[in-house]
Amino acid sequence: MAKRKRKTRLPIIWAVVIAIILIVSAPYIKEFVASESVDGDIVSVEIPMGASTENIGEILKENGLIKSVTIFKVRAKLSDNGSKMNYGTFNLHEGMCIPDIINTLAGTYAHRPTVMLTVPEGFSVQQIAARAESLGLCTKAEFLEALTDDYDYAFLKDVPYVEGVHYRLQGFLYPETYEFFLDATAHEVIDKMLGQFEKETKGIKIPRGRSLYEVVTVASMLEREALLDREMPRIAGVIQNRIDKGMRLQVDATVQYAVTKGEYNIKRVTYDDLEIDSPYNTYKNAGLPIGPISNVSVTGIEAALDPEEHGYLYYHTDTEKNDGSHIFTKTYEEHLATQ
Q1: Structural domain includes residue 138
Q2: Would you give the distance in Å from CA 231 to the centre of its chain?
Q3: Is the pLDDT at 5 greater than 60, yes or no?
Q4: Mean pLDDT over residues 114-121, rounded?
Q5: Cα dihedral angle (181, 185, 190, 193), rounded to 10 degrees?
Q6: For the chain, how many structural domains are there in total?
Q7: What is the helix (H) or strand (E) element at residue 237, kind and residue range?
Q8: Which domain holds residue 190?
């Protein structure tokens, strides 16, 4: 007797698989082909300047306005307005189809005015506050007051509250050029700078026996004392040598900070200035100043972590070269002789 052929179930399995795929992908297919909007709740979204199509898609997805960033990118590429989408704050609504979202973002829009705030390496919070005020971003008083707010960054757990310190966040507002909406609050400005500090220093490891606060304090002196980045490790070596020998650091920038209350609006330190009674004054007090005297870059932090090994104990500006470099010496006699 001839054997009967067993009927294969493969077509049934494939039919089930295809059906599942169609069910799962139906919302995405619908989103891709949809060309008419339906009513829904208003959602306000902020598109930052320079945002890519993918960035915009992610913002829209986070706000529940689209389901797929990939589909949004494809529809934007197929749209005449896909490359014309603007930045700013837009009121969209749930139920808008992707073409209408793209057209809205590309439509005529009065952009919120923005301002560029440049924070150089070695700027104090007082100087940043004054610059922010000069740009119309916020008042100096508002900025300095916002320094006492709470900010949610892990590294701030290692920043102590020290009695006598002018501002706890001094040292941690990362030097960078930032763009802010002109109506940004002082809190938002500071928050962005702290976020940049966290981002830039993420890979830096503080060795056992040292603290982030101490390292930033050293780096803050380097930022003020060294006009040339290449000299930071050498000046850090001088600081370390003086600490090892129990000498006072006698860093002029700490006196400038104390005298000007962080404004740095004097060019030279006088003998009278050296006598100012301040925990920041390293001419009168042994060891490091009570806290950072400026805001620091990764370059300054790395120099503070890895000081150059040498025998120098003194340095002063090379007035002959007049290029911002210093002359380094091992003895006080050599120091005097080279001035």
Answers
A1: yes
A2: 24
A3: no
A4: 93
A5: -10
A6: 3
A7: helix 232-244
A8: 114-200
